C-alpha cells in the first residue's frame, strides 16, 4: 500500500532521472549526484576520484597480482598484441553512432579501471584512476565487408599507452546504411572474459536509453577494481600457509617434455599463434556431460582429463602439470566488476599405472578441487615461492600446457539490430600448447589446439588435436577403457591449417623436416648418451637452420662439447644467437658450451671431419672487461647476491620484474640495447656479457663499415638525405631544400616513392626496418634530416636512429623530434632543453632516447653538429597531416565540431592554470627551421612552434570552417584529450619560423579542410 512519502520519493526519482537524461544527452551528467532518498542509482556515477566510497585515487594504489603480470609483459617487451582483447560484432539494422558514443563514454565513467594509468613509484608499479573523459571517440570508416578483416586486425593490434591511461578504444566500419561492424578493443590489464559480459550488458542498457530518449533502467553503482586490488594487497601477508601448500603440491614438478621442432625457428619476442581443429560428433558433448554427472564431475573436469590423457600420449610423461583458468570473482560484492580477475591454476596429476579413463577422471577431479580451493592465491606468488623450481633445467616454464572449454562468445546485442560475433585474431600464443573443447555452436562441436608456432611443429599440433578428438569420441562411447586401450586417431589425408586459425590462416603449411626415428623425447638417442660429430642433436639442429650450411659437434678430452658452424654467406646469425637457439630447442644436456663460426669445416676428401685441424676449445675463463664488470655489479645490486659467471638468474631469485630492472640499468650504464626478455633468455652473467659484447662489436663493425667510401657518380656533393620523404613533415622538407637548390636524396617506402618528384631530388626506396639500406644512404650523404617515425614501434625507431648515428661520419644531422619528449612539465611555460617531467609517454620516451643517441655522437669522429628540433602538432596541406587532424591528438575535438555536437572546454583557471590549448607549427615553417639547422646547427634541442591556440579559439575556427553549429560550453573539468596547458619557448629558431603569407592558423586549417572535402566528395 503506497504512502504519500512513497509518492514523493517516486516523483523525486522520476524528476532526477529526467534531469540526468537531459544532462547526459548534453554530456554533463556526471556532475549530478543522486538524492539518497530517491532510491535510484545514477547510471553514470559522479567522478569524484573515489572508488566506491574509498579514499581518493592518488596514484598510490598497488596493482593486483594479475595486473602486475600484464604490466611486466609490457615492460619485458615483445608482448605484441597477445594481451589485447578485441570485442567485435556485426550489426545489421539501424545503428546510431552518436548514441553508442554516449553509451561508451558513460561506461568508461562508471568503471574506473577503463580510465586507469600505470606508473612506477620507488621501483614498484602502481595505478591511478583518471577523471572520466568527456567523450570517448568512436571513429567511423566506410568500407565494404571484404576489407573489414584487415582493418579490424590492424586496429586491434595498435599498441596501447598504459602510462597515459589508455585501455579501451572503438572503431565502427560502415558497410552500408544498415550494416556495420563495431569493434571495441580493450587491454587485458583492464578486462577479462567475465568483464565482457558486464560490458555488453551495460552498453546495451546505456545505448537503449541514448537512442529512445528514455531513462535507462536502474544500473547499480558498480564495484571498482581499485578496491579489489587494495583488498588483495592487504591480504598478501596471510597467504603464507597456502603458499607452503602450493610448494608441496608442485615440489619437483617439471614442465611437460613436448616434442621439439625439427627445424629451429628464428626467435621472435611474440610467439606466433596457430590453431588446429577437428570436428566432433554432435552427440559427444552430451555424452561427456552425462559421464561427468555419473561421477560427480563437471564437463570441464572431463575435458581436462582427456587433455591429460592426450598429453601423456604425446610426451610419454606420467607426472604432468596442466594450467587451467581460475578467477578471483566470488560473492555478490564482485558482481558487475570490470577488471582483470583471472588466475592460473596449475593442476598436477599422476597418470602412471595405465588407469582407465574413469580412474584418471577421479584423479583429475581431486587435483582440480585441491587447486580450486587455493584459487585466491595469485599464481605469480606461487612462482616466486618455487623460484628456479618453477622452470625446467632449460628455462622452460612449468605451465606451458593449458586446457579449457570454450562456450558461445559474448556478443553485443543492441535494440533493433541483429548481432553476429566477429572473430578478430591476435598474433601471440600465451602458452606453448592449449587444448580446447569448442562448444560455441551446439550443432558443430570441435576439438582444438592453439600452439606456439615457434616451439611446436605443425605436424605435431595436427597429431595432437586428432588424438585429443579421438580420445573424446572414445571415452564418450566407453569410459571404462584403460588409457593403453584407447584408440589412436586414424590417418587424416586432408590435414591442414584451420581456415579460421588466425593471422596466418591464408598461408600454406610449412614443409617440416621429420625427426629421426631413433630420437628420444629430448632429441638425443633413445639409448645412452647423445653422439658427437655430425649426428649430435645440436649439429642436426644447426644444419636445419636456413642460414647454416654445415655444422658439427666435438667433445674435447676435458670439458663440455663444443659446436662449429659454417654459414651460407657472411651475413647471418652470430655464434651467440645460434647458441641461444639451441638452448631454446634442446635439452640442457644436449647444448654445447659454445658455437664457433668457421669459413669451412676441415673435412677429408671422403667427407669425415679432420678434428685435428679444428680450433682449440679450452674451458672458458671468467669473462673480463668493463661490460663483464657491469653485468656482475648489476646482478649483485638487483638480486642481492654476488653472482658467479655461470650462476643461473632464476636460481639466484630472479623473476620478471628483476629482469626488467636489470636490463634497464645495463642499458643506461652501457648505452647498448637490452630488454628484460634478453635477460630471461641469457640467464647467466657469462651469457649476458657475451650478448652485450656481441652487440658492442656489432656497433663497432657498423661504424667501421660506414667509413666514407669513394663517392658514387650518382651522389652529388652537398647531398642531404631526408627520411620519411613522403610524410607530412618530410615532404615539406624535401620541397624546401629543393627550392634552395640543394641536392636531395629522398628515402621513401616503395609504395609511395612515386609521389616524389622535383629537380635535384633523387629517390631511394626503403624504410626504417631496412637497416643496411639506411646505413648505406647515410654513408653517402653530406647531411641528414631524419623525419621518419613509426609512431608506435619504438624499438624500430631506436634501432634506425642507432644505425644512422653509427654510419654518420660527416656534416650536420637534424632530427625532427616532438614536444612530447618534455612529458608533463610542472610549469606552464617550457624552456628549450627543459628536463622531461613524468609522466612521459612511450612515444615521448622514444624521442628522448633517439635524441640522446644523436647528441652524444655529435662532433666525434668527423661528425658535424646535431639539432633535435621538437615540434608540436604540425598543420599543412598534406594528406597525412589531414588524417592527423581528423583522427590524431585533437581528433575528438575535430569530430565533435564536424558533427555539430556540444563541445565542453575547460574555462581559464581550471585546475589552477590560466590557459588550456595547444601549440602548433606550419609544416612549411618547420621545413625552413630544419633547413636553417643544417646551416647553423643548434647543438642541442630547439622548439619549433608557429603559435599557441586556446581550445575555444580552435573550436570556433573548426566550427566556422566546417560550417556547423556546435555549442561551446565552459566547464570546470579538463577532459583527458584536452589536458594541455603548456607554452613552448622557441627563441633558437625564431627567424625561420616567422610566419609568411598564407601561414596563419585560419588559412592552413581552411586548406586542410578543403582538401578533406575534395578527397571524400
Cα-to-Cα separation, first versus last residue? 63 Å
Based on CA atoms alone, the radius of gyration comes out at 31 Å
- Helical run tally: 28
Overall pLDDT score: 81
Query: Using DSSP, what is the number of strands?
Result: 31
Strand residue content: 15-25%
> Biggest sheet, in brief?
7 strands, parallel
Helix content: 25-40%
Low-confidence residue ranges: 1-58, 266-270, 493-530, 705-713
Q: Tell me, what's the shape? A: globular
Query: Structural class from helices and strands?
Result: alpha/beta
- Order the strands across the largest sheet as they lie in space: 20-19-18-21-22-24-28
Observed structural traits:
28 helices, disordered N terminus, five-stranded mixed sheet, alpha/beta
What do you see in this structure?
The protein is built from 28 helices and 31 strands. The protein is of the alpha/beta class. Strands 20-19-18-21-22-24-28 form a 7-stranded parallel beta sheet, sandwiched between helices. Strands 5-6-7-2-12 form a 5-stranded mixed beta sheet, covered by helices on one side. The protein has a 4-stranded mixed beta sheet with strand order 8-14-13-11, covered by helices on one side.
Topology:
Layout (H helix, E strand, L loop, with lengths): L3 H22 L35 E2 L2 H12 L7 E9 L4 H14 L5 E6 L2 E6 L10 E3 L5 H10 L10 E9 L2 E9 L5 H20 L12 H11 L4 H10 L23 E7 L4 H11 L4 H17 L3 E9 L14 E9 L6 H16 L6 H8 L14 E6 L11 E5 L10 E6 L7 E7 L5 H20 L59 H8 L3 E7 L7 E6 L7 H11 L9 E4 L27 H14 L16 H15 L5 H7 L2 H21 L14 E4 L6 H10 L4 E5 L12 E5 L5 H9 L3 E4 L7 H14 L5 E6 L10 E2 L11 H16 L8 E6 L1 E3 L3 H9 L3 H9 L3 E4 L10 E6 H13 L4 E4 L3 E4 H12 L5 E4 L11 E2 L5 H4 L7 H16 L1
Helix pairs in contact: 2-16, 3-5, 7-11, 8-9, 8-12, 9-10, 9-12, 15-16, 15-18, 16-17, 19-25, 20-21, 21-22, 23-24, 24-26, 26-28
Amino acid at each position: 500500500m503506497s504512502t504519500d512519502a512513497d509518492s514523493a520519493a517516486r516523483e523525486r526519482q522520476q524528476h532526477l532521472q529526467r534531469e540526468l537524461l537531459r544532462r547526459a544527452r548534453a554530456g554533463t551528467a556526471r556532475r549530478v549526484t543522486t538524492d539518497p532518498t530517491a532510491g535510484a542509482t545514477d547510471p553514470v556515477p559522479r567522478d569524484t576520484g573515489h572508488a566506491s566510497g574509498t579514499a581518493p585515487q592518488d596514484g598510490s594504489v598497488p596493482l593486483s597480482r594479475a595486473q602486475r603480470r600484464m604490466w611486466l609483459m609490457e615492460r619485458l617487451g615483445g608482448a605484441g598484441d597477445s594481451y589485447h582483447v578485441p570485442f567485435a560484432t556485426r550489426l545489421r539494422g539501424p545503428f546510431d553512432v552518436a548514441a553508442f558514443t554516449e553509451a561508451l563514454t558513460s561506461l568508461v565513467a562508471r568503471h574506473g579501471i577503463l580510465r586507469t594509468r600505470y606508473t612506477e613509484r620507488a621501483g614498484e608499479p602502481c595505478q591511478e584512476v583518471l577523471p572520466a573523459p568527456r567523450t570517448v571517440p568512436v571513429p567511423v570508416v566506410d568500407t565494404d565487408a571484404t576489407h573489414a578483416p584487415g582493418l579490424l586486425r590492424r586496429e586491434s593490434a595498435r599498441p596501447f599507452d598504459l602510462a597515459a591511461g589508455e585501455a579501451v578504444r572503438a572503431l565502427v566500419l560502415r558497410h552500408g546504411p544498415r550494416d556495420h561492424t563495431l569493434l571495441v578493443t580493450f587491454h587485458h590489464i583492464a578486462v577479462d572474459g567475465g568483464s565482457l559480459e558486464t560490458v555488453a550488458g551495460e552498453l546495451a542498457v546505456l545505448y537503449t536509453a541514448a537512442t529512445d530518449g528514455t531513462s535507462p533502467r536502474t544500473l547499480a553503482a558498480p564495484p571498482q577494481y581499485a578496491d579489489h586490488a587494495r583488498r588483495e594487497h592487504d591480504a598478501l601477508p596471510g597467504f603464507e600457509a597456502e603458499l607452503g601448500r602450493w610448494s608441496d603440491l608442485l615440489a619437483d614438478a617439471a614442465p611437460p617434455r613436448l616434442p621439439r621442432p625439427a627445424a629451429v625457428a628464428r626467435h621472435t619476442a611474440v610467439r606466433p599463434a596457430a590453431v588446429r581443429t577437428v570436428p566432433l560428433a554432435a552427440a559427444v558433448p552430451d555424452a561427456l556431460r552425462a559421464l561427468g554427472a555419473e561421477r560427480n564431475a563437471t564437463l570441464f573436469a572431463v575435458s581436462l582429463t582427456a587433455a591429460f590423457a592426450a598429453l601423456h600420449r604425446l610426451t610419454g610423461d606420467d607426472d604432468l602439470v596442466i594450467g587451467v583458468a581460475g578467477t578471483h570473482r566470488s560473492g555478490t560484492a564482485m558482481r558487475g566488476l570490470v577488471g582483470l580477475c583471472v588466475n592460473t591454476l596449475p593442476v598436477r596429476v599422476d597418470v602412471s599405472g595405465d588407469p582407465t579413463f574413469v580412474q584418471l577422471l577421479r584423479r583429475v577431479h581431486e587435483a582440480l578441487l585441491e587447486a580450486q580451493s587455493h584459487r585466491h592465491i595469485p599464481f605469480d606468488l606461487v612462482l616466486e615461492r618455487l623460484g628456479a623450481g618453477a622452470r625446467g633445467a632449460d628455462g622452460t616454464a612449468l605451465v606451458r600446457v593449458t586446457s579449457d572449454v570454450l562456450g558461445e562468445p559474448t556478443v553485443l546485442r543492441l535494440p533493433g539490430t541483429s548481432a553476429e560475433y566477429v572473430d578478430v585474431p591476435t598474433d601471440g600464443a600465451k602458452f606453448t600448447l592449449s587444448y580446447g573443447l569448442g562448444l560455441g555452436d551446439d550443432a558443430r562441436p570441435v576439438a582444438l589446439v592453439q600452439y606456439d608456432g615457434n616451439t611446436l611443429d605443425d605436424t605435431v599440433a595436427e597429431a595432437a588435436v586428432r588424438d585429443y578428438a579421438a580420445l573424446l569420441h572414445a571415452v564418450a562411447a566407453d569410459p571404462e577403457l584403460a588409457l593403453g586401450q584407447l584408440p589412436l586417431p586414424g590417418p587424416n589425408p586432408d590435414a591442414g591449417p584451420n581456415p579460421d586459425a588466425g593471422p596466418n590462416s591464408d598461408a600454406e603449411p610449412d614443409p617440416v623436416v621429420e625427426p629421426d626415428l631413433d630420437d628420444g623425447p629430448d632429441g638425443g638417442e633413445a639409448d645412452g648418451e647423445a653422439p658427437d660429430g655430425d649426428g649430435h642433436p645440436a649439429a642436426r639442429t644447426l644444419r636445419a637452420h636456413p642460414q647454416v650450411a654445415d655444422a658439427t659437434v666435438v667433445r674435447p678430452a676435458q670439458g663440455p662439447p663444443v659446436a662449429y658452424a659454417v654459414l651460407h654467406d657472411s651475413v647471418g646469425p652470430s655464434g651467440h644467437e645460434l647458441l641461444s637457439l639451441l638452448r631454446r630447442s634442446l635439452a640442457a644436456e644436449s647444448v654445447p658450451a659454445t658455437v664457433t663460426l668457421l669459413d669451412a669445416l676441415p673435412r677429408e676428401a671422403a667427407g669425415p671431419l679432420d678434428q685435428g685441424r679444428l680450433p682449440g676449445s679450452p674451458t672458458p675463463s671468467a669473462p673480463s672487461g668493463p661490460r663483464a664488470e657491469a653485468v656482475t655489479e648489476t646482478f649483485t645490486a638487483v638480486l642481492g647476491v654476488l653472482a658467479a659467471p655461470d650462476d643461473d638468474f632464476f636460481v639466484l631469485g630472479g623473476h620478471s620484474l628483476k629482469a626488467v630492472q636489470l636490463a634497464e640499468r645495463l642499458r643506461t650504464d652501457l648505452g647498448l640495447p637490452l630488454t628484460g626478455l634478453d635477460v630471461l633468455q641469457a640467464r647467466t652473467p657469462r651469457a649476458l656479457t657475451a650478448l652485450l659484447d656481441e652487440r658492442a662489436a656489432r656497433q663497432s663493425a657498423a661504424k667501421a663499415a660506414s667509413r666514407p667510401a669513394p663517392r658514387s657518380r650518382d651522389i652529388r656533393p652537398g647531398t642531404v638525405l631526408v627520411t620519411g620523404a613522403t610524410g607530412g613533415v618530410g615532404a615539406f622538407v624535401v620541397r624546401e631544400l629543393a627550392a634552395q637548390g640543394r641536392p636531395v636524396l629522398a628515402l621513401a617506402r616503395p609504395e609511395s616513392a612515386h609521389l616524389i618528384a622535383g629537380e635535384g631530388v633523387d629517390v631511394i626506396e626503403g624504410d626504417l626496418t631496412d637497416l643496411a639500406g639506411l646505413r648505406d644512404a647515410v654513408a653517402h650523404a653530406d647531411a641528414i634530416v631524419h623525419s621518419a617515425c613509426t609512431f608506435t614501434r619504438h624499438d624500430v625507431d631506436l634501432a634506425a636512429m642507432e644505425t644512422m648515428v653509427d654510419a654518420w661520419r660527416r656534416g650536420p644531422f637534424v632530427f625532427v623530434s616532438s614536444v612530447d619528449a618534455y612529458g608533463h612539465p610542472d610549469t606552464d611555460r617550457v624552456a628549450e632543453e627543459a628536463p622531461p617531467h613524468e609522466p612521459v609517454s612511450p612515444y615521448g620516451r622514444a624521442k628522448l632516447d633517439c635524441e640522446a643517441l644523436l647528441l652524444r655522437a655529435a662532433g666525434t669522429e668527423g661528425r658535424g653538429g646535431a639539432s633535435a628540433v621538437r615540434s608540436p602538432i604540425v598543420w599543412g596541406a598534406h594528406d597525412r597531416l589531414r588524417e592527423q587532424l581528423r583522427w590524431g591528438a585533437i581528433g575528438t575535438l575535430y569530430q565533435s565540431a564536424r558533427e555539430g555536437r556540444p563541445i565542453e572546454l575547460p574555462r581559464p583557471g581550471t585546475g589552477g592554470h590560466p590557459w588550456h590549448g595547444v601549440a602548433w607549427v606550419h609544416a612549411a615553417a618547420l621545413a625552413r627551421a630544419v633547413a636553417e639547422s643544417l646551416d647553423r646547427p643548434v647543438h642541442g634541442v630547439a622548439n619549433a612552434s608557429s603559435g599557441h591556440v586556446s581550445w575555444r579559439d580552435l573550436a570556433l575556427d573548426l566550427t566556422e570552417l566546417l560550417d556547423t553549429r556546435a555549442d561551446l560550453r565552459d566547464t570546470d573539468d579538463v577532459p583527458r584529450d584536452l589536458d594541455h596547458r603548456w607554452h613552448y619557448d622557441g627563441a633558437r629558431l625564431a627567424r625561420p619560423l616567422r610566419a609568411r603569407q598564407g601561414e596563419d592558423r585560419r588559412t592552413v586549417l581552411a586548406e586542410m579542410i578543403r582538401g578533406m572535402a575534395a578527397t571524400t566528395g
